[in-house]
User: Which sequence fits this backbone?
């Protein structure tokens, strides 16, 4: 039996959720939460509160997570591992996860691993000591045997933002290849031919898939991918974008466009080009990836590929709730479409040879 | 007896922490965590692991939070209420809280209230159902009787970023008055005399203290505070900054500088001035507040008042751990100093009358 996407039979086997009660009562889940809690019931209009209570009773909903935990041996907590909440990518992902888990009365425990595998192990151990029911992790690398161990121990794991190459774990990611195609096609349409790609680490799916997407789109446009114009950083940071762009400028100055691995790397390219006396977009066009907050405020405003981070977080939480209810069946992989956002960092290719 | 700031006797009465073990063993707390956990011990050099185990034993440290919880009737979780993790102010505050709590083996549970008092009540109730030991909240308004109820119920509360006017709760905040003085003195030194203040809501300490700081600094500079040049927004957002700046432009165009309530409001001022055909900083200088991430990347780069958000979060966690150990004694209020960061949005006042 194949589960229909997003609302499979696994879902119906799970406990009644706050959202179910909300649907039956015709109110927002937050209203259900208020109405069911004696301490907050007074905040809800009396008639609405009564409707919610009737709906909860008819569905057999149990609101108290501790009470539920005692009955089902669940803690109703989910461990969420991210590299760093101060990286602007992660707040909307975490917010999407939290909002969706909250509707099912699950609580996320968030830990920052700083992309340090040792720290990740410590955080995982601490979360297991707290008896979390499952994990969502944004820290996947291709070396992920320890995640499969968690699954084997009965703890569902869902990957968010980054997937793994062997497809062994469920994941919700951006469609990185599509995004790079959108970026490349945009600069090709502007007349650029010598196009560089300065991307992230290859052991992260966001690094290797974007590199693959770049190569495929260049090939389809009939353009060569030249080794000298492709760089791979150790991290997705402005510092690494700056370093790679300086190396590129030292090696070859014929390029007229850079498709960066993400927005932070694009900012590093701004800096390196500026130091070299080149102007963006007059001399070199730059495309980022993510459309992180304030990308529209940079100088120049950054043309980039928008990733729906909040939605990626929300769908990862949904997928995890599915796996908690029924972890049989092959892992699902959801890729959410990206969208090109054209701003001031891209312009027609300069004419007349080498700029 | 007066507790010395930052390391009072309350601290010595608390349980032995991971940090204590780290100090005795002469290693980083993360190393202690690894060494004490059987699953991660292999990650640590054998000699170091033995030193840590000896230190832990001699101090009587108990690493497992669940085991500790059973003995002491604590959950070793702390509820953290923030308006919204996607507001760039809060990730560094949360990171500071998390890093410091982790060292004492406490786990934060973070909830986003969206500055909605009803949602805040729901989140509080959910956290109480999870039996958190204490709260840190960044959502304080002057109406905060419910927080005093928590304290009366034996749940310590520490305010972070925002305080309350009556001083009834311990708090770690920026020195908002000092920050506004730094902003005003900077534009006064540049020759500005007609200076506007477009700030946040007065029922938030960050709103009213910055307003007070503005008024005091203007007075000390011998300049009048004119009603027409002072506005107060409903929220600390770019939209409100934009709205207030448009109202200001409609009412009076003689001002040459705006001291904004925060960086987002300053961005809204950029937009409103641009629409009115005025250039920043040539026609109007603008100062922000916070030095949030990417303020240096805006166009123009924003002159602003830097607030040490990570440190504010870390000190709030320290203060909470103090209160958990001993909640007697008056609430302490810690104000951390701010620092002016001069960038491209401020310039000498235009000469020749009305610009």
Assistant:
């Amino acid at each position: 039996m194949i589960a229909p996407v997003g609302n499979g039979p696994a879902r119906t086997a799970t406990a009644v959720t706050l959202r179910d009660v909300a649907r039956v009562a015709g109110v927002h889940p937050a209203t259900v939460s208020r109405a069911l809690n004696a301490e907050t019931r007074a905040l809800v209009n009396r008639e609405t509160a009564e409707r919610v209570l009737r709906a909860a009773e008819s569905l057999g909903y149990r609101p108290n997570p501790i009470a539920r935990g005692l009955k089902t041996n669940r803690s109703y907590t989910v461990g969420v591992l991210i590299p760093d909440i101060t990286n602007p990518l992660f707040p909307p992902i975490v917010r999407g996860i939290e909002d969706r888990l909250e509707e099912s009365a699950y609580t996320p425990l968030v830990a920052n691993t700083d992309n340090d595998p040792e720290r990740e192990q410590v955080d995982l151990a601490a979360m297991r000591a707290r008896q979390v029911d499952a994990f969502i992790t944004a820290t996947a690398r291709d070396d992920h045997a320890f995640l499969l161990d968690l699954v084997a121990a009965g703890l569902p794991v869902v990957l968010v933002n980054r997937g793994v190459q062997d497809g062994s774990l469920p994941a919700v990611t951006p469609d990185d290849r599509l995004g790079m195609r959108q970026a490349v096609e945009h600069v090709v349409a502007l007349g650029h031919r010598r196009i560089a790609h300065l991307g992230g680490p290859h052991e992260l799916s966001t690094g290797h898939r974007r590199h693959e997407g770049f190569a495929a789109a260049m090939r389809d446009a009939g353009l060569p991918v030249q080794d000298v114009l492709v760089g791979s950083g150790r991290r997705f940071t402005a510092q690494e974008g700056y370093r790679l762009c300086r190396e590129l400028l030292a090696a070859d100055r014929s390029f007229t466009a850079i498709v960066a691995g993400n927005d932070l790397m694009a900012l590093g390219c701004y800096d390196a080009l500026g130091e070299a006396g080149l102007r963006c977009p007059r001399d070199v066009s730059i495309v980022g990836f993510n459309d992180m907050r304030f990308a529209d405020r940079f100088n120049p405003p950054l043309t980039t590929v928008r990733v729906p981070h909040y939605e990626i977080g929300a769908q990862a939480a949904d997928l995890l709730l599915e796996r908690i209810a029924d972890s049989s069946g092959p892992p699902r992989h959801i890729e959410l479409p990206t969208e090109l956002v054209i701003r001031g960092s891209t312009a027609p290719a300069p004419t007349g040879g080498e700029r």
Observations:
- Chain B has 13 helices and twelve strands.
- Residues 1-14 of chain B have pLDDT under 50 and may be disordered.
- Chain B touches chain A through 47 residues (CB under 8 Å).
